[in-house]
Amino acid sequence: MGLNIGKVTRREVALAAGTSEAVVSYVVNNGPRPVSASTRQKVLDAIAETGYRPNTIARSLAAGSTKTYGLIVPNIRNPFLAALAHALQQEMFSTGRVLLLGDSNDNKEREREILRTFIERRVDGIIWYGVDRDVDMRDAHAAGVPIVVLDKAPSGSEAASVFINETEAAFAATKHLLEHGRNSVGIISGPRKNLNSQDRIDGWRQALTLNKIAASDRLIFEAGYTRGGGYAAGKAMFSGAVQTDAVFVSNELQALGLLAAATEFGVRIPEDLAIVCFNGTINSAFSNPTLSAIEQPIETIAKSSINLLLRSAPFAGESIECDFRLRRRASCGCDYERDTFDRDE
Question: Could you tell me the pTM of the whole model?
Answer without folding.
Answer: 0.80
